[in-house]
Amino acid sequence: MTADLSQIVKAYDIRGVVPDQWDETLAELFGAAFVRVTDADAIVVGHDMRPSSPGLASAFARGAARLGADVTLIGLCSTDQLYFASGSLGLPGAMFTASHNPAQYNGIKMCRAGAAPVGQDTGLADIRALAEEWSEKGAPEAAATPGTVTERDTLQDYAAHLKDLVDLTGIRPLKVVVDAGNGMGGHTVPTVFEGLPLDTVPMYFELDGTFPNHEANPLDPKNIVDLQARVREEGADLGLAFDGDADRCFVVDERGEPVSPSAITALVAARELAKHPGGTIIHNLITSWSVPEVVREQGGEAVRTRVGHSFIKEEMAKTGAIFGGEHSAHYYFRDFWNADTGMLAALHVLAALGGQQGTLSELVAAYDRYASSGEINSTVTDQAASTARVRAAYEGGDGVTLDELDGLTVTAADWWFNLRASNTEPLLRLNVEARDEATVARVRDEVLALVRATD
Fold first, then answer.
1. What is the CA radius of gyration of the chain?
2. In 3D, which of 338, 339, 367, 340 has the Cα closest to residue 352?
3. For labelling alongside 83, which of 67, 71, 345, 388 has CA 20 to 30 A away?
4. pTM above 0.85, yes or no
5. Active-site residues: which are they?
6. Quick check: 311 and 305 in contact, CB under 8 A?
7. For residue 79, what are the contacts with CB-CB under 8 A and spacing of at least 6?
8. What gap in Å lies between CA 57 and CA 72, rounded to an integer?
9. Pairing verdict, β 105-112 and 116-117
10. Three-class SS string for the chain?
11. Residues contacting 235, CB < 8 A, separation 6+
């Protein structure tokens, strides 16, 4: 396949339709290019439950071994399990998954040794260039001594590492409903939860990359409806929902109500600061005001970043931060090689809830202090013009500040909003937060009227 890879190589990973946009032939070239760019003599490769994943992972391994690298195949795994393998083994890694995307998609998330990110400016552009060149001119010359391909199971070691970081042995018994969405949570949760004082009610644990029950994207409210109903039906203490590759975790309380990822970020930040007083916590700019407030109250330092895992990981490495959180429910831990792991965040929530007698809704009330709109997407023909219209309306306003760290953020005494352009679609994404629901509604409607004025 001679391919234009511009449509599948994103800012931080590779993602596209198989086999229309890429296939095993290209995966083999990506494997060779990954080894060449990272100068690796050994790598680790894992994959999710999508029908195309085993073949793509094997092809990638062949390409890497052809250039002399020894490959450790860890088979079925979550993305954070791949990061664990990369960190604990000290090897660059590749994870075959398209996360929450539909079944026909697949992709590669890549990292350097120690789970360090591979992004557009840290190797991905070079990998793409080599794969395109070899696609047109033929595969590179094989190494004089090809690498080996061996298999290794890391699931037990992954689970043990997480449980070493968060001790749940002394908590009160909890009943937890877990919706794996037919994704990799169905593979990892039974092993991680084994031996803990948890009565686990499984939902959609069967590994099925065609996602027969609902999309494996808990960020969309329609995909947690089943979980909410089951939590209420079971009288459970809480519910957990994982996305397709199980690197993100969403939480619902005992009433079946969603818990804001910002509240989870603040809760985990407080727990991490109790272990590491005075530590730095990273949060992206669309997390709630609650997050930096809690961090300061707990004696920590809050650092605000752009949206996106590479920015969070870069800032964590630069500052030595102990924890980082995004409003998309990605949670990053220094004790986990600065990588994101929804499972470790879930264990923190379980430990916090089980360490006291109140309900989850009571527990998180201290961390969920403001009203918010959630993310609202608007399809526009000209992102820049719509954003400029909004900027002009608020610029110079009394008591209002503007910044453009990531899109446009406008902040007043009682509210703020952020308006960001999508990198891949003609969309503007709006998030509004305020001290009360009425103000959220007013600001939301004002901004949306400006955004959509000519669209």
1. 22
2. 367
3. 67
4. yes
5. 99
6. yes
7. 48, 95, 97, 99, 109, 184, 245, 246, 247
8. 11
9. antiparallel
10. CCCCHHHCECCCCEEEECCCCCCHHHHHHHHHHHHHHHCCCEEEEEECCCCCHHHHHHHHHHHHHHCCCEEEEEEECCHHHHHHHHHHHCCCEEEECCCCCCCCEEEEEEEEHHHEECCHHHHHHHHHHHHHHHHHHCCCCCCCCCCCEEECCCHHHHHHHHHHHCCCCCCCCEEEEEECCCCCHHHHHHHHHCCCCEEEEEECCCCCCCCCCCCCCCCCHHHHHHHHHHHHHHCCCEEEEECCCCCCEEEECCCCCEECHHHHHHHHHHHHHHHCCCCEEEEECCCCCHHHHHHHHCCCEEEEECCCHHHHHHHHHHHCCCEEECCCCCEEEHHHCCCECHHHHHHHHHHHHHCCCCCHHHHHHHHCCCEECCCEEEECCCHHHHHHHHHHHHCCCCCCEEECCCCEEEECCCEEEEEEECCCCCEEEEEEEECCHHHHHHHHHHHHHHHCCCC
11. 175, 254
Tallying the residues shown for the chain, one arrives at 455
Report the distance separating Cα 79 and Cα 322, nearest Å.
Answer: 20
Per the CB < 8 A criterion, the answer to whether 5 and 132 are in contact is yes
159: alpha, beta or left? (left if phi > 0; alpha if psi -120 to 50): alpha
Distance CA 269, CA 14 (A): 31
342-354 vs 155-165: helix crossing angle, rounded to 10: 40
Question: 């997407």: which residue's tokens?
Answer: 377
Q: How far is Cα 451 from Cα 428, in angstroms, rounded to an integer?
A: 8
pLDDT (tens, 9 = 90+) of the chain, 455 residues, equals: 556 788 888 877 899 999 999 999 999 999 999 999 999 999 999 999 999 999 999 999 999 999 999 999 999 999 999 999 999 999 999 999 999 888 999 999 999 999 998 988 889 999 999 999 999 999 899 999 999 999 999 999 999 999 999 999 999 999 999 999 999 999 999 999 999 999 999 999 999 999 999 999 998 999 999 999 999 999 999 999 999 999 999 999 999 999 999 999 999 999 999 999 999 999 999 999 999 999 999 999 999 999 887 789 889 999 999 999 998 899 999 999 999 999 999 999 999 999 999 999 999 999 999 999 989 999 999 999 999 999 999 998 889 999 999 999 999 999 999 999 987 678 899 999 999 999 999 999 999 999 998 75
